[in-house]
TrEMBL record:
A GO cellular component annotation in the UniProt record: cytoplasm
Lineage of producing organism: Eukaryota, Metazoa, Cnidaria, Anthozoa, Hexacorallia
The species this protein was found in: Nematostella vectensis
GO MF: calcium-dependent phospholipid binding; metal ion binding
Protein's name according to its UniProt entry: C2 domain-containing protein
CDD domains noted in UniProt: C2B_Copine
Keywords of the record: Calcium, Cell membrane, Cytoplasm, Membrane, Metal-binding, Nucleus, Repeat
Amino acid sequence: LVSSATYTHNLKIPSGKPAGNMTVTTEEVAGTNDEVQMVFRAQKLDNKDFFGKSDPYLEFSRAKEDGSFVVVHRTEVVSNNLNPKWKPIHISSQQLCNGDYDRVLKDFFGKSDPYLEFSRAKEDGSFVVVHRTEVVSNNLNPKWKPIHISSQQLCNGDYDRVLKVNCYDWDDDGSHDLIGTFTTTLRELSTCQQGGAELQWPCINEKKRKKKKNYKNSGVIFLSSCQVVRVASFLDFIQGGCQINFTVGIDFTGSNGNPASPTSLHYINPYAPNEYCQALTAVGEIIQDYDR
């Protein structure tokens, strides 16, 4: 048996008849003697009993490398109480979280709430965040909504610029935990066409990789498809044969006053064009070349 390995063996009764199978799963044990002491209490729990109050207890499970959970501790039962306070818990960090303090913080009260954060490399080697996905709550196999973003915003139009993608576990106190990281480029992303093979990247947490001898990854991120759609510019429409007709309409509203008065926006100045005429001239001189 090796770390994080699963071994299944068929069982037989003495007569040789099959009697099912037994599966043994192992994981690497961290060498630590730290002891964790905790005191928990609760308030205003939902009442699940029909003829009285609930009899609550806490059950602690730690996440395994395959995303499943294994129970490591249960508190005593506090009878008939919706505001229980349990006795102090004394447990080794090895038993509680296999000595992995980040595992406790991330998955202590349930599964992760993952989201992705995209950053592009700057000229000085640092990174700037350009996009974040939505949070998928309580899910170790999340599927995020399609992302729509301009190449200018994503990578400044540089298909070979390095993009760093961080996968975080969202926490409501703002202390989001890093699950893992990978890097890519828009050129690589754009090779994933709809209906073709998915691209995938292992999500690497450097702290865990340094601490665990047999660390592989903290999950895998898959890309189902990537489409780069060119958005046509004004000149593209003109070169494609789009015709423009320039028509001007002026509404001489009474609120602008008498056109004969110098205070009116429609005042016909014998020495210089008014603001309306200036605007029409500026726009018309450009548009006239495209009026067919």
